[in-house]
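Format notes (please read before filing issues)

Several people have asked whether sequences and structure tokens are stored in separate files. They are not. Every record keeps both together, in the order shown below: the sequence lines, then the token lines. Line labels are part of the format and must not be stripped during preprocessing.
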Amino acid sequence: MSDAHNSGKEARDPPRPTRLRDALRQARIEAADRTGVVVELRDAEVARLEIMNEALDPLFAQVPAQVDLFDRGVTQGETPRLWIDVVAHIVMGRDKRIYRFVQDTRFGRIVLAESHDVPVIVTAVTDYVARRMIEREHAMVATPIVEPEAPKKPRRRGFGMFVLGFLLGAAALFAFALYAAMRGL
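Then the structure lines:
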């Protein structure tokens, strides 16, 4: 009777989709391993990067919509890459089985993390995303330094005062000359 009771309970509980998701992920890894060994190394790289991309889905689901720092996607150029943002991406190592999380800086490319394990790289990307979001917060909150207003300098009366002085002096000389001429008559 307990078997019938248990099977009835299992029939009512929906199956957990994470198990299928895990099975699909494992099948992709196995297929990527087989493909990487045989012929299509590049397709294997892209497949592994897409597996990593799916593993990062829960992380990027938590990033607020107003944060537009990250533009994640797989590019299939000469060297396939999983871009995290403009300066950071994940590439496959030389053996095509190791993930390498790198960042381009003005001093060259630096390796932030390197591992065969997806969870290790996911942790490194999580730390990187958190640091970038904090940098963004600091940039958004930082207010410009307000410089104190310089005291106003007294206005120089350069050329205008010179002309006024010249005219007053000329008028004084004219008045003196007129006075002297009237007296001398």
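For reference, the curators noted about this record: Residues 159-183 form the longest helix (25 residues). The chain has six helices and five strands.
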